[in-house]
Design a protein that fits this description.
The complex is a heterodimer of chains A (about 80) and B (about 450).
Chain A: E1 8-11, H1 19-30, E2 37-41, H2 46-54, E3 57-63, E4 69-75
Chain B: H1 14-37, H2 48-78, H3 85-109, H4 112-137, H5 145-170, H6 181-213, H7 220-243, H8 246-272, H9 281-305, H10 307-310, H11 314-352, H12 367-389, H13 391-439
Helix pairs in contact in B: 1-2, 1-3, 1-13, 2-3, 2-4, 2-11, 3-4, 4-5, 5-6, 5-7, 6-7, 6-8, 6-11, 7-8, 8-9, 9-11, 11-12, 11-13, 12-13
The chains are: A alpha+beta (about 80), B mainly alpha (about 450).
């Protein structure tokens, strides 16, 4: 997963809760029909997956060697 | 889009809160018992009142917080959703609360009936919780040390509770125990402290310390070794005790104690590298907890090499106060001050559905109130330690401080619930009036 593949990048590593959630939600709000959002997190965001599923998004997760979890999100319709 | 936060499977607000709100009441009861018993309570670790106070803290305070937090944490850190979490929480709470009271009564009176009733209530409540948590975790791969640690901690709880129930039933000698009572008690304490509490604390710390204290992560090599190494060494330690090999048991005790010590040192080390300019209450609580854990470890090691120290009245009591009250209880209260405001914020944000923004987390409990409670808790800790050395001078004062510190904790938690209810009403009013405006022609 490369950062070039994403239109919007949210680096939520090192942010205190609930900031990662708030920033991800705000970015999803802005996400166009054909755009992709990349969220960088320090751990697997299990609650986010369920929320994405409920709201018609699909996503792809990759774990990096440094422990970063990268979640690439886009609208399901694409 | 804020409605995204409406996680349909998130545990309802009252599921963890019923546990969090009950916990301080047990610690207050422990304080009242110390006041009522006075210096005599501390004559030995085996006095009925000392045993009752210990279990009011472990089964009353700590178990409540740990189970409440686990109901909330399992879906978030492991993606393990507990089915009918509110129903499970209600039933588990309704059985372990009387169970803890019955156990304390049994320990005070040594009447077998109370012990049997306690074993029944606690056995049922814990079996239900373990079945629900086991079902939620079934099929969840252990992709990180936290998930593995949670699974192993639950195994530690099964062994701790199983041995505890066996001891409670066998206390009157009506059933034959496979091992002498003292040996089984030692193994029960070992699994309670290390196999359940320390493993759970470590599994959770891996996530919550970097997340809430803005620290770098724990060293990955240590994080991957720690969760399974403790239960493994503990198993051999239990076998050594059961087989009657004191030399090997003492050696393995030293390994366990040093491993816990390494965890405490690493936690203090990552804390020093926190990005936060000024420590908040949670960080102070964790720092004191780790220092107390280190002191308990040092004292415990000193006891294994100095038999005269280990045989003294003060030694086991000091180790117990440092480990239970100074370390585990401090960590738990520190975490409550993060978990509770976060849950209040999350549920209010969900309720607002994107139309009403929830108030920020730091408004849920005023910093000044947290500070005051923390200072009282630390004063109670100092007085409890002093009471072990000079029971006649400090036992009553320590009892008063314990009641006061937990009374303040209860007030802070009830304040958070009142804050939630007040804002929920406001949000409901705003969202319903917005809906009416939209519906109007």
């Amino acid at each position: 997963m490369t950062r070039q593949a994403a239109d919007i990048v949210v680096d939520a590593r090192g942010l205190e809760p609930p900031e990662p959630m708030v920033r991800t939600m705000a970015a999803l709000d802005q996400l166009g029909e054909t755009e992709r959002l990349l969220v960088l997190l320090p751990r697997e965001p299990f609650p986010l997956y369920r929320a994405l599923e409920l709201n018609g998004f699909r996503w792809q997760t990759e774990r990096q060697p440094d422990g970063t979890v990268e979640v690439l999100i886009q609208h399901q319709r694409q | 889009m804020q409605a995204l936060l409406s996680f349909d499977q998130a545990p309802p607000f009252s599921a963890p809160f019923r546990f969090f709100l009950t916990a301080p009441l047990f610690a207050m009861l422990a304080g009242v018992l110390l006041l009522w018993s006075g210096p005599e309570l501390l004559a030995s670790r085996w006095t009925p009142a000392a045993l009752a106070v210990t279990h009011l803290i472990t089964v009353g305070f700590m178990l409540q917080v740990m189970l409440g937090a686990m109901i909330q944490i399992l879906p978030v850190v492991a993606g393990a959703n507990m089915i009918r979490s509110l129903g499970v929480a209600r039933l588990v709470h309704a059985t372990i609360v009387p169970g803890a009271l019955l156990l304390a009564t049994g320990l005070l009176t040594f009447d077998p009936l109370w012990f049997r009733l306690a074993a029944l209530a606690l056995g049922f409540g814990l079996a239900l919780f373990l079945a629900a948590a086991g079902h939620a975790l079934h099929g969840v791969p252990s992709i990180n040390p936290t998930i593995l640690g949670l699974k192993l901690a639950l195994t530690g709880l099964i062994i701790t509770a199983g041995l505890g129930i066996l001891l409670a039933i066998a206390v009157d000698g009506s059933i034959a125990l496979p091992l002498p009572l003292l040996q089984l008690t030692t193994i029960h304490i070992g699994w309670g402290f290390v196999g359940w509490s320390a493993v759970l604390l470590f599994a959770v710390a891996l996530v919550v310390v970097p997340m809430f204290q803005m620290t770098p992560p724990y060293p990955p090599r240590f994080a991957s070794i720690f969760p399974w190494s403790l239960p493994l060494v503990l198993s051999f330690w239990s076998l050594a005790h059961a087989a009657g090999w004191p030399g090997l048991a003492a050696l393995l005790t030293a390994v366990l104690v040093m491993t816990v010590g390494v965890f405490a040192v690493l936690t203090l080390h990552v804390q020093r590298r926190s990005k936060r300019a000024r420590f908040d209450a949670t960080q102070h609580y964790w720092r004191v907890a780790m220092l107390c854990a280190l002191a308990a470890c040092a004292l415990s090691l000193a006891g294994t090499s100095l038999p005269a120290l280990a045989e003294s009245r003060e030694w086991p009591l000091l180790c117990g106060v440092l480990a239970l009250f100074g370390s585990l209880m401090s960590v738990m209260i520190g975490m409550l001050y993060k978990i509770v405001p976060f849950l209040v914020w999350l549920h209010l944000q969900n309720l607002g559905g994107g139309q009403v923004v929830a108030p920020t987390m730091n408004k849920v409990i005023a910093a000044q109130q947290i500070e005051r409670q923390m200072q009282t808790h630390f004063a109670a800790l100092a007085l409890l330690l002093a009471a072990v050395i000079r029971p006649d001078w400090f036992a009553h004062l320590a009892g008063v401080a314990l009641v006061l510190a937990n009374g303040l904790l209860l007030r802070n938690l009830l304040g958070a619930v009142a804050f939630y209810q007040q804002h929920r009403r406001q949000i409901k009013l705003k969202t319903s009036s917005a809906a009416l405006r939209q519906a109007a022609p």
